[in-house]
Amino acid sequence: MKSAKRNGIAAAAVLGAVMVAGSAVVPAVAADGQHGAHGQEGKGETSKHVLVLSVDGLHQKDLDWYVKNHPTSALAALVSHGTSYTHAQTPVPSDSFPGMVGQFTGGNPGTTGIYYDDTFNRALLPAGTTDCKNTAPGTEVALTEAADKDPNALDAGQGLSGLPSSIMNMTGQPGSLLNPAALPVDPATCKPVYPHQYLKVNTVFEVAKSAGLTTAWSDKHPAYEILNGPSGKGVDDLFTPEINSQAPAPFTGDWTQDNAATQQYDGYKVQAVVNEIDGKDHSGTKAAAVPAIFGMNFQSVSTAQKLPTSDGLTGGYLTGGTVPGPLLSKALDYVDASVGKLESALSTSGHAKDTTVVLSAKHGQSPMDPSALTRVPDSAIISGLNAAWKAANPESADLVAFSTDDDIMQLWLSDHSEKAAQFAKDYLASHSATGNDVKGASKTVGTSGLSKIYAGSEVAEYFGTKTSDSRYPDILGIAQTGVVFTGGKAKIAEHGGASADDRDVPLVISGAHDAHARTVEATVETTQIAPTILKTLGLDPNKLQAVQIEGTKALPQR
User: Fold this and answer.
1) Residue 359 CA to its chain's centroid (Å)
2) Quick one: average pLDDT of 193-200?
3) At what angle do helices 326-349 and 259-277 cross, to 10 degrees?
4) Which residue blocks in 173-216 are alpha helix, DSSP H?
5) Is residue 552 a contact partner of residue 546, using CB atoms and an 8 Å limit?
6) Closest C-alpha among 447, 396, 324, 355 to residue 61
7) Which of 531, 520, 463, 548 is nearest to 88 (CA)?
8) Relative to the CA of 160, which of 23, 82, 179, 195 has its CA 20 to 30 Å away?
9) Contact 396, 438 (CB under 8 A)
10) Which pLDDT band holds residue 44 (cuts at 50, 70, 90)?
C-alpha cells in the first residue's frame, strides 16, 4: 500500500550508524544488473536548453502503440525527429523519488540515498525531537505531502486566496512550504533535515547553476525541493502544487482520484513550462531567462492506469495488457496535446532551434495485463510476521518498525541484525497470502506474494551500498508479477517493483538537428539522462558526483 506504516514502539529500539546528507559511499555493482556504465559514442550535439518531460507510468509499449495509431501526433513527431532508446530501464525501486532523482543525478538509490518517497532511517531522530541527546534514533523520512505545512491545500499552505485558479502565483521556492516539525532531525545538529540535505550527491541543476545558467522544474510535492541538491540552491524556479491536496468541486478526494482532476492538475504545470519558454517565470508575471534545464512531470497517465474507473470510463488496459483502455487512451491523448502545446511554444518563441527535448518516465506501472492482478493486503502479512517474532521472542517489540509496500515490499526492522532479517525472510518465504483478482474474486499466492526475498546484508549488496548505511531496508521483497500490496480494491496497478512493467519506460531525445528517427536497442538506464543533459549543454558530466561514483555514461549516439 502507498501509505507506509510505522511501529512507534519498535522505532525506539532501532540503532544504526549515522548516514545523513553528504556522507561518502562507494557502491559496488548491484545484483541483477541494476547498476552499470554503458559505452558512449555519438556526435555530441549541443543545445542552449534541455526540456525534460517525465510521463509517469508510461511504458515503451505505450509509446509504440500510440505512435503507430496516431502517426500525425506530437509524440510521433518527437519520435520521428529523435533518438529512441527502446530498452531503457528505471532504477529499482521504480518509485517516483528514486526515478526522478536518478534522472537528475546519474545515480541509483545506493548512491543517492533515496530508496523511496517514504522510508525509514536508523540514524535520524523522530520529527519534532528537541532532546537530541536522550532520544533513541530511528524514524520515518516522508518526502510526501506529509511534509507540507498544509497537505490539504494545493499551495501546500502558502495561503493563496482564490485557489485553484490562483495556483500559478505559488512560490518558486517550495522549501518554505515544508513544515520543519514534520521533518526528521539530525542528531548531530538537532535541526530538521530538509529533503535537499538528505540527498547524498549533487544534481544537474547545481552543475548548471555553477556555470551561470538558469534552471526550473515543476513537480507534484514541495518535497521535490530535493532536486535543489545538497547546496539547496540548484533550481531557480521550482513550481510544486500539491497533488494529494483536496481537489475542488465537482471532484471529491485528491487530484489523483479522478483522471479529469489529474489532467486539470497537470495543466497548471504545462502552463508553467509554457510561461518559462516565453521568457517568464512559472507564474507568467515576471520576466526571466529561458532556463537551460527545465520541464515537468505528468501524472495523468499514471492515475488512468491505476483507477478501475473514472469519468465513466474503464481504467488500465484491455485484456492482454497491450492496448490501453478508454480512460488510459484519453489520458494519452491529453499528454500528446500537452506535448504539442509545448512544442508549439518552442516554435513560436524561436527556441525550437536551440532546445533538446527529453521524454521519459520516473517509473512504469504493473501489471499491464488486468488478468495478472492480485491485490494482497500487506497488513495481514506484517501482522503475522510480528506475531511469529513475538512468539519466538516474548520480550521483544514488533519486528517490523516500518514498511513501504506497493508492488515491492520494503521492511525496516526493530532488530537490525542478520538473525532478525533471516527470521523475516524465512517467514515470508514459508507463508501464503490471500488477496483478490481484478474482479474481486479471492486469490491465494505463495511466499507472501514475493518472487525473490533479500535480507540484511543481501539488501545492501543488491543496492551496492555498505552495511553501515542507515537507510536501506532490512528486507527487500520483489513482488510476483501482478501482485500489488493493497488492502482495498481502489487500484488495479502500482509501481515500485522490479518487473518489466515497472521499469521498461520510453527514453526519447529530440534535438533541433535530429532530422530523422534513430533507434538504439542496447539496454540503457534512465540515470544516463543526467550526464546526457550536461553533455548537451556543453558542460562536464563528471561534475556530477554520482557519475564519478557509478561511472554513469551519457547515452550513446548523443
Assistant:
1) 15
2) 98
3) 10
4) 195-198, 204-210
5) yes
6) 324
7) 520
8) 195
9) no
10) low
Contact of 93 with 497, CB cutoff 8 Å = yes
Q: What is the pLDDT of residues 339-348, one digit of tens each?
A: 999 999 999 9
Residue (of 214, 258, 207, 211) closest to 238 by Cα position:
214
Q: Angle, nearest 10°, between helix axes 96-105 and 529-536? A: 40
Q: How far apart are CA 369 and CA 18, in angstroms?
A: 43
Q: Radius of gyration of the chain from Cα atoms?
A: 22
C-alpha span between 495 and 309 (Å, rounded): 18
Question: What end-to-end distance do the CA atoms of the chain give, in Å?
Answer: 39
Residue 29 confidence (pLDDT) above 80: no
8-state DSSP, 232 = T
**Cell 551519457 maps to which residue?**
554
Q: What is the pLDDT of residues 487-517, one digit of tens each?
A: 989 999 999 999 999 999 999 999 988 889 9
| Distance, CA of 189 to CA of 442 (rounded, Å) | 51
Q: Tell me which residue of 372, 427, 431, 371 sits closest to 399, measured CA to CA.
A: 427
Cβ-based burial of 39 (10 A; exposed 0-12, middle 13-18, buried ≥19): exposed
Q: How far apart are CA 332 and CA 304, in angstroms?
A: 9
Query: Can you tell me the distance from the alpha carbon of 475 to that of 487, in angstroms, rounded to the nearest whole number?
Result: 20
Mean pLDDT of 310-324: 97
What H or E segment, with its residue span, contains residue 426? helix 418-430
